[in-house]
Amino acid sequence: MRDSFRLSTVTVAAAVPAQAGVEHESPRRTVLIAATVIAVLLCSAHAVAASANTVRAAGIGYLCVAIFLSGCAWAFWMRSRLVEGTLRVRWRMIAAAAMTASIGYAPSFAECLLGAPAQRQLQGALLNSSEGMYMLAAVLFFAGVARSIVIVDILQALLFVVLRFNLYYSPMTRDHFALDHLLVGQLVALFLFLTATIACLGAASRAELSFLRALSWFFGFRLIDFFLANQVNYIWLHNENCGLWDVPGTTLLAGFALYMLWTSRAARCAV
Asked: Residue 244 is part of which domain span?
């Protein structure tokens, strides 16, 4: 009788955390399903508007990019809660970079869709700062490096941001779509993708390899987005405002954010 009572007590105690986990999973799944539905609706709206090639349609595209980048930032932040130490810093740095880039697209959305005045310098500072943080997240805090190397990495990132800011807009025309800006943007996107991909070869742990692989996919999708929107859509096809070639890049970013969020529970179990 005593053994039977002890067995039933252990069974109930084990069932309580399991039930709590199910209750905690239910609202999370509801939020993720809602986010997926919203992403599908936004991508559909973007595809419909992009074919119009108008200023207002471009504003819708900027809004979609801002929302999807904020979704990527949310996914990165959720992953940072699964790790400790410097790797958590790197996850949170990439989250901050994605959110900064998301905010950086807000002035273009407000200008195109709401008729707000242009905020080129603020936008340039935000987008360039985000790229500096992207680079730091990819190369900073490698295992076993000296503090002096970390300081050099930070200084190089700051120099990169300053130079990138000077090239971002033409000082003569302030043209948002200056060809040198588009070319430099694509080259920087390629550089970030190659940096994260090559860094995977030097990963010191499985957790760091998972982080660098996530960065490689994210930077790869950014590169595709920049190439299709800037090179194909604007330079080759001469669509001054927007076009259907803008849609695949934003859709890939949306899919990446959703994938990272849906698989965060599996990543927690693997840690």
From this structure: 31-270
